[in-house]
Amino acid sequence: MRNTYAFLLPLMLAAGSLGAQEQQQELDPEAFNASLKYQSGTVSLKNGLATLNLPAGYRYLDPDQAQRLLVEGWGNPPGDKPLGMIVPAAINPMTDEGWGVIITYVEDGYVKDGDAAKINYDELLTEMQTATREGNAERVQAGYSPMELVGWAERPHYDAAAHKLYWARELKVDTFSTHTLNYDVRVLGRQGVLSLNAIAGMQQLPTVQRDMQGVLNFVEFNEGNRYADFSDGDKVAAYGIGALIAGKVAVKAGLFKIILGALIAAKKLVIVGLAAVGAFIKRLLGGKKEEPRVAG
């Protein structure tokens, strides 16, 4: 299975790479930041799929430059390139205060949103926390630190008019003194989902929360790719809103397409325990049919 830069799942393995840390220590943060080729203003994503209309406080790194920051700057292993990254203009991403929004696109089809109003997010969180705990035995056996999904840093919210979904999770890894904030935005389109994920420390929640609300407003699919452009015969995804939040994706040809985590605030490597994730996804996607949850 290919390694893909995308978003943190509630089921993860956390590990530091000594070689990557040594490389990071050799980099001059100011010099490396100055070497990055930032863009501003209007940016086209994936050959016209979507557009970023960046206000003055934000900068964009194209796929190659984003890969440089992820691999050379933050010490992550090479993988599929993201569509780019959004970085606050006033902050050097190489500093402890640095953070960015990783942009990817999952073309699994049109995600129906009829389940959005029926999801009980408290029950969903409990399921995700249980699955995270169950995965810890495997993570420890593999030599990695246990992880805890502490709870919602911001409860999920779906904007039915804009077809945009956002939520945030608080994560705790035993080897890190500060908790990690994982703030997610999903923009639903005609053929897939545009994903924007901010990784930061929990102490940065007010800043990230404010800025990500702005991100919601300046990311849009272009005409022909919008959610409203769906027509009969278009591919429909095998999952709904709840699956997006839990980190589950469609089952294809008997295989699970797993979205791999790439980063956490401490700039350590995060990888997914595939066996534990697969079991959780199979139970919730491929297992017995459950009664719809009613929001409570």
What do you see in this structure?
This protein is 27% helix and 26% strand. With 296 residues, the chain is α+β, with helices and mostly antiparallel strands. The strands form 4 sheets. A 7-stranded antiparallel sheet has the order 4-5-6-10-9-8-7, sandwiched between helices. Strands 2-3-11 form a 3-stranded antiparallel sheet. Strand 7 (147-159) and strand 8 (164-173) form a beta hairpin.
Features:
disordered N terminus, Jelly Rolls, 3-stranded antiparallel β-sheet, 7-stranded antiparallel β-sheet, 296 residues, 14 strands, 26% strand
Work out the strand percent.
25-35%
Number of helices: 7
Q: List the secondary-structure elements in sequence, H or E.
A: EHHEEEHEEHEEEEHEHEEEH
| CATH topology name | Jelly Rolls
Structural class: alpha+beta
Q: Could you name the CATH class?
A: Mainly Beta
Helix content: 25-40%
N→C terminal distance: 38 Å
Poorly predicted parts: 1-24, 249-296
Shape descriptor reads globular
Total beta-strand segments: 14
Order of strands across the biggest sheet? 4-5-6-10-9-8-7
Count of discrete domains: 1
What is the compact description of this entry?
This protein is α+β, with helices and mostly antiparallel strands. Helix content is 27%, strand content 26%. It starts with 12 loop residues before the first strand and ends in a 10-residue tail after the last helix.
